[in-house]
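Note on ligand handling. Small-molecule inputs were canonicalized before submission; formal charges were left as drawn, and no protonation-state enumeration was performed. Where a ligand contained multiple stereocentres, the stereochemistry in the source SMILES was retained. For glutathione, this procedure yielded the string shown in the input block below.
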Amino acid sequence: MSRDEEEAGNTAYGRRAFKRSKAHFTDRVTADGRDGWPVGAGRYRLVVSRACPWASRAVISRRLLGLEDAVSLAVADPVQDDSSWRFTLDPDGRDPVLGIRYLGEAYDKRETGYPGGVSVPAIVDVPSGKLVTNDYQQITLDFATEWSDLHREGAPDLYPRERRDEIDAVTAEVYEDVNNGVYRAGFATGQEEYETACAAVFRRLELLAERLRRQRYLVGDTITEADIRLFTTLVRFDAVYHGHFKCNRWKLTENEVLWAYARDLYQTPGFGDTVDFDHIKRHYYQVHTGINPTRIVPLGPDLSGWLTPHHREELGGRPFGNGTPPGPVRDGERVPAQGRP
Ligand SMILES: N[C@@H](CCC(=O)N[C@@H](CS)C(=O)NCC(=O)O)C(=O)O
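Structure output:
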């Protein structure tokens, strides 16, 4: 949630439903450079928080597509301060490539006095230090389609042309009721608003479970953008959405199909190796003081189940299509032990 959303939440929420703001910086990095930002190896830095579901989409795509050498990664402290996302995990609290302490400095370089919030994911142009885009809906689609010259050998096609209509349709529903639905439930300030959002979350999850009962992935028989987008919410479900956001009709671990589907993806290289449960829990429970004033971070849930067999391979499917899984996580990008099961 960006700062302006949070402000809206503190004022008009009793009467108005939670509304996610649109990304303000929507330039695209493309093969032909039509917005002034051509794809180029080493030119851009992807700034994320591993806590953030929208940013995590980009971290997963980057791994699956093998864009690690092309786009470097900056991981912000999961707990923002009053000046928002900061690089306190790095030596001297500065991002070593951009040389800045706060992501907001790259926003300022792009547009002085921008009144909106600073959000992740963000792509920053390294030579100028300027923010290029914070348009999380577009970044992964562009990684999949515009950056193809720089994909690794064996990279999967995450947004296959012949499946785009189906992917767009399913991701629209997943966005509305699941990705953003949990936030609508979590930040509701009235009983009715909460109940409507929470009911929609579970109604949609049950429909998705039906769809996934007999097919391994959401669209076609390979991993696509649609799976990445559902995964980033499911992997956070029991850790933060069930308790902190009150989406508690059932836990992910209690839904046989979705729990197996989420474990299958978690155990696929490029998914689970990007997830930091410690960052996820500290961010949600410590930052949203409106809904958790004590800032206490719960000890649970038990994470060991994420590594148990899922048996989804019995449904067939070819995770990477004609491609191959990504190689090991780069040195310096491994999730610390405290964030893993
Ligand atoms: N609403 C964001 C989408 C991404 C987003 O909400 N990211 C969150 C983290 S999960 C964020 O950076 N929020 C700003 C903040 O919490 O200060 C946008 O407008 O681009």
